[in-house]
Protein 1
Amino acid sequence: MDALDASSRSGLGTEELFLADSRLALAALNVGRKWALRRVFGVSREQANLLTLVLALSAAEAAHEATRRVIRAPLRVSGTDAAIGGFLVREAALGIAGPRNRDVPLFGTLMMVAAIAGLALPGLRRAVQGFRATEQRVREQRISRYIAARRAYGS
């Protein structure tokens, strides 16, 4: 029996089946969470939510502290490390592209330009759209001022 046939016979569409399945999975995970907390910490089912909150806050604090340390850590990259990193990035790009592309002159440069363009284009598109919206708004304001001046002069 096909899954689509079962969903049409039960009267549930794809969205309803997905929601029902996800709710069932979340309920199973919740039961498993409470069981694990009872086994590890010996807490009751009523205390499991509070303990989960305390554990989540502790994990968030630890993650915040680790992030703060990583951001403030001095970055010491030698020229040798940079050269090795560049070589590894080049070899990874050539490995993904295939063996025949090693014969293409400046293939690494072409891939780097494509990667930078792929990262920059969405930002440039947003900037152009914002510029167009601003230009349209200014144009409409200017036209409304011309119309108001024409009406004032005509009366």
Protein 2
Amino acid sequence: MTDSGKLVALWCKRAKRGPMDPCAQATLVAGRGMRGNANQGGKRQVTIISAERWRELQQEVGVELAPSARRANLMISGLDLVHSRRRVLQIGDCRLLIHGETRPCERMEEACTGLQAAMRERWGGGVFAEVLTGGEITVGDPVAWVEAGGMHTP
């Protein structure tokens, strides 16, 4: 993986357990999350998965699933999310503080037998984050790790 990547997909969940609606752009609100998304506030404002890790999981369980089955808000490519707790991710002009690993729930097992167990390894469920700096994000935006003050990490 590199030190930078891009935002490859976005989904908004209008209600808890509701469908994941794909979108080309979204507004992130500092301290709240994604405008229009069911989860607002707290430390789990936005959830993020890696496109590369999702492909690995599909190969491991031997099934092809739409990435929306993971029920994350954002899919990025080019960055490894493993052990990223307390790192700051910049997407376009927005900054997100990663608070931890998103543990896979029983809904993953409903999507495919064996998926929940596979996702428990190497942060397969992705991460959850708090929006530090809000703004508009669009599929295709650059994504990079940055220092809390905005400088790129080595």
Protein 3
Amino acid sequence: MFKPLVSTLLLFLVIIAYGQVEEGNPPEGMVLIPGGTFMMGSDHGQAIAAPKHPVTLHGFYMDVREVTNKEYQEYCLATGYKHPEFWGLGLYKSGPDYPDHPVVGVSQFDATQYAEWAGKRLPTEAEWEYAARAGLEDISYPYGENEDHTRSRFNDPEVEKGPVKTGSYPPNGYGLFDMSGNAWEWVSDWFSESYYSESPEQNPAGTSMGTFRVFRGGGWHSGAGCTTVHRRNGLPPHWVDIAGGFRCVKELSKQ
């Protein structure tokens, strides 16, 4: 007679345990993104961003800001790795004269190498969108439904060419800066137009192979529509761009 009660209690404890995350302070420059379930994608836009579907993720840490020129230079000096495209030319705020601007001109391979050196990794596409939404479902931008130049750096003829310093605009609900605009960000997934129709619900990580890698968030020269939280794009992993950057994540168990 007690079996239903015991089963219910066990289920309740499992739900609580799944929602919990490890205690302790996040690594420097990162913030805790708690695990949870959200509706990924959009049924009102790109066909490749549909269908809107539920995704459940474990918690993780994410860089509060996009990786900066200063941080990437430290990596290059420590490892002998090549500096990114456009470095030190004064173009697009790239190089040591702009330490607090997001590094651009890096390929997905470059970003992956940096993340491994830093003891981190690139986010999955699902982790990136979940973090960008910060618990808000019916939005197009991390800050709300409508585009706003006071909240994000995207194509604006009134602003000097190039990105701005990371953190120049207000953060989203998770305390993350520049999840829309400034530098678009590489993620770890291979790109597939049909993936949303076949994606697993638990911690999806993309297809096992492909031709393009996914990037998210749009950049300083992107139109507003390219900077939405659900916009998907893909490019060859060796591609470099004047607005192409990244940020990293870290597993909770690997502090």
Protein 4
Amino acid sequence: MTIAETVAPSGSVMCTDAVGGMVQAATRAAHRRQLTNISFRQCTADSLPFSDDSFDVVVSRLGIMFFPDPLASLMEMLRVTKPGGALALAVWHKSELNPFFHIVADIMSNYVEASPTEPDAPGAFRFAEPGKLANVLTKAGAISVRERVLEFDVEAPVSLKDFWQLRSATSGTLREKLAGLTEGEVTRVARDVREAVQDFFPNGQMKFPAQMILVTGRKR
């Protein structure tokens, strides 16, 4: 929706998501913001229901790390991009550079044994290693591939008291782990998290330093 506001009034946006509930929620949000230059479709990235050379720019923000087949998806995204058009991707940098995530994960590891994960398994930090996603985009056929690190703050009007509820409600993986703990253990996890993150709440509101890797390329 930010992109739709940026390219208005002459430009338009097609927003896709694999989950129907996300598409419905986004559609409602666009209506609330009175955006008329954005449309929505439910589909997966490796099977886009659009003709070749349809879009000037294709953007995937915090999505490709969860795709079952990133290479096939990037090839499909390039297919629907116009010749000379751009493809832009945003993924999380390394976990240790993003305390919003790793502090809770570190505390949970004291209560639930972390399962080993394959380096290429879908997950938030699948492309956290510099150069990894850029190499896949190049292999997909993109040219002029570039990578840069974006440093910013994850900040919102969320209090320390409400932070745990926010994190536990927005992470399916975290909810699954918490479901296996006793009520007392869940209480202790919440206490440990609040103690560990309190320095990231200046003036009573959430502010975590964060880093992403941005990868861009063009279609021949």
